[in-house]
């Protein structure tokens, strides 16, 4: 242990020496070799754990280390709270309605030019390990069919009830074996890379995504929160917050559909909820440890002060907030992601309150490498938020919009969903904007998002809806998704042939489906033959001509030093 503490002290000292004034750093990055970049992207990590009081519920030493010696983006969001569409946005720099990545089956073309491809063309050595998941054609049949049939007039549970599973071993550190293997591969690649040329390394982790249910095939869900006693001991049980729930009758219709299809409308004891959240936090601690192994490897190889390290996630995890687990929701637990940067040119202990999102990764990567940005990207470089910089940089910072867009078109939600996040406000619109009521939350007063004030503040609702429509014609996009779902389902049904009924009866919803299969087959047939009703595109009406001023909100955090958990 003393040797490890000595190593940590040397890491801190190295970072301190590598952190001159921002203007000097900027000049050095331009004159000398471009910095290396390592991007670690996990799955399902609630970004609020990186800065809010909730971070005290679990020990995350390396995230805290990055926070103390780098920059934390306090309001970072996914552009679509599900794996493939979110990652498609991150690798393309484009909003979901532009990539048309509507669900986990439909992502980018395999030959799509990503930021990594461009960096490679400009001399960077590049490598990817682990979960990438931004191209089309992946995930289970069940996941696809559920997304395609979300408009069908039936309600079927698509998931196993969320449960916990403990390995009662205080010494078992490597629980998610595949993630640890990919982390080892990434470290080995770092040891062998040519240090005379800059490199960019991507490591994708599956944790802290829940595990597949026991004895389930690929067409069943991942409803098991699984960890060992070693990681569970990193969680402060007394600090775990039991989320407040609305009564089922008070839930928004889409929230009720989500909760039901995720098998969360039944009775849960407070102990069950607390355990699910505790196991999730323990899985986050294991994720942090893998991030830490990459940071320590960079230090041992004398690369840490020459490398920009970025940590983020594709989306969050509900962990029983709003009576749900998984993601597929616009609530904070689902859409708020971690985003931390550390390295040369990155300010230490800086907290940025501006709203940012994963489409900003693409221009940031190219900006780090000094590569000109292609036109028409949805995102903006994060570097303009990190230093005082030049007048030109300030101008770019000024033109960054004070909002982010997130959208969702996949399974476990029976309407296309659009979120506009700006200042203290979160506005959520559904479908065509008229057939389903919107939601408005003031996060400064209602961080748990339990009080929809859309009807109470019609002027703000109208203003935000108008802004959303200026960004995306969401009624038109919703209609396109609706048509796509029908076409894809018909194609799949024709390919399956006479076995269609047998196949669909054994997907994730099999327990409910097999109670009355003819009823659900008829519902699908009715959906396929019915004409889509015209989409009303008129926005909510304002009762006032005034346009509200939308103030910004900020958060704070406290840094601490990491400890290694190499196993």
UniProtKB/TrEMBL annotation:
Q: Which reaction does it catalyse?
A: an aryl sulfate + H2O = a phenol + sulfate + H(+); Hydrolysis of the 2-sulfate groups of the 2-O-sulfo-D-glucuronate residues of chondroitin sulfate, heparin and heparitin sulfate
What are the required cofactors?
A: Ca(2+)
Keyword Hydrolase recorded: yes
Gene Ontology CC entries for this record:
extracellular region; lysosome
Q: Which InterPro entries match?
A: Alkaline_phosphatase_core_sf, ARSK, GAG-degrading_sulfatase, Sulfatase_N
Q: What is its main location?
A: other
Q: What would be one Pfam family of this protein?
A: Sulfatase
- Biased composition of type Low complexity is found at 532-567
Identify its protein family: Belongs to the sulfatase family.
Q: What is this protein called?
A: Arylsulfatase K
Q: Which organism is it from?
A: Mus caroli
State which gene encodes it.
Arsk
């Amino acid at each position: 242990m003393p040797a490890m503490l000595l190593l940590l002290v040397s890491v801190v000292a190295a970072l301190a020496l590598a952190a001159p004034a921002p203007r000097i750093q900027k000049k050095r990055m331009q004159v000398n070799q471009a910095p290396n970049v390592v991007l670690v992207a996990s799955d399902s990590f609630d970004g609020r754990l990186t800065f809010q009081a909730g971070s005290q519920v679990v020990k995350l030493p390396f995230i805290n280390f990055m926070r103390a010696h780098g920059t934390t983006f306090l309001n970072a969001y996914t552009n679509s709270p599900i794996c493939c569409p979110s990652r498609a946005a991150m690798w393309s720099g484009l909003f979901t309605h532009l990539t048309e990545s509507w669900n986990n089956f439909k992502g980018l073309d395999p030959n799509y030019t990503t930021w990594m491809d461009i960096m490679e063309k400009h001399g960077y050595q590049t490598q990817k390990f682990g979960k990438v998941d931004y191209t089309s054609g992946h995930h289970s049949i069940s996941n696809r069919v559920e997304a395609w049939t979300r408009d069908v007039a039936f309600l079927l549970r698509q998931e196993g009830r969320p449960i916990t599973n403990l390995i009662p071993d205080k010494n078992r550190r490597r629980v998610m074996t595949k993630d640890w293997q990919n982390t080892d591969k990434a470290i080995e690649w770092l040891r062998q890379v040519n240090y005379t040329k800059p490199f960019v390394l991507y490591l994708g982790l599956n944790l802290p995504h829940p595990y597949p249910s026991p004895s389930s095939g690929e067409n069943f869900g991942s409803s098991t929160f699984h960890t060992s006693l070693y990681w569970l001991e990193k969680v402060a049980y007394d600090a775990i917050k039991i989320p407040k729930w609305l009564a089922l009758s008070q839930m928004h219709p889409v929230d009720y559909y989500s909760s039901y299809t995720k098998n969360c409308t039944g009775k849960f004891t407070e102990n069950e909820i607390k355990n699910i959240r505790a196991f999730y936090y323990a899985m986050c601690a294991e994720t942090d440890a893998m991030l830490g192994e990459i940071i320590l490897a960079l230090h041992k190889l004398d690369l840490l002060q020459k490398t920009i390290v970025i940590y983020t996630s594709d989306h969050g995890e509900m962990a029983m907030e709003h009576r749900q687990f998984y993601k597929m929701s616009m609530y904070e637990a689902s859409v708020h992601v971690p985003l931390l940067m550390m390295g040369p040119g990155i300010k230490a202990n800086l907290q940025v309150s501006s709203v940012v999102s994963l489409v900003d990764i693409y221009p940031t990567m190219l900006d780090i490498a000094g590569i000109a940005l292609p036109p028409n990207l949805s995102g903006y470089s994060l570097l303009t938020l990190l230093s005082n910089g030049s007048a030109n940089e300030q101008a770019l910072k000024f033109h960054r919009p004070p909002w982010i867009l997130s959208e969702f078109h996949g399974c476990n939600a029976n309407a296309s969903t659009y979120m506009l996040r700006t200042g203290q406000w979160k506005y959520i619109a559904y479908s065509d904007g008229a057939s389903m009521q919107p939601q408005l939350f003031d996060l400064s007063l209602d961080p748990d998002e339990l009080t929809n004030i859309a009807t109470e503040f019609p002027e703000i609702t109208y203003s935000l809806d108008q802004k959303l429509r200026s960004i995306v014609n969401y009624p038109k996009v919703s209609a396109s998704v609706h048509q796509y779902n029908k076409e894809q389902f018909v194609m799949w049904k024709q390919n399956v042939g006479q076995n269609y009924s047998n196949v669909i009866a054994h997907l994730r919803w099999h327990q409910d489906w097999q109670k009355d299969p003819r009823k659900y087959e008829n519902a699908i047939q009715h959906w396929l033959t019915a004409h889509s009703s015209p989409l009303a595109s008129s926005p909510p009406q304002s009762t006032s001509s005034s346009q509200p001023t939308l103030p910004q909100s900020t958060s704070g955090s406290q840094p601490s030093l990491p400890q290694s958990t190499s196993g």
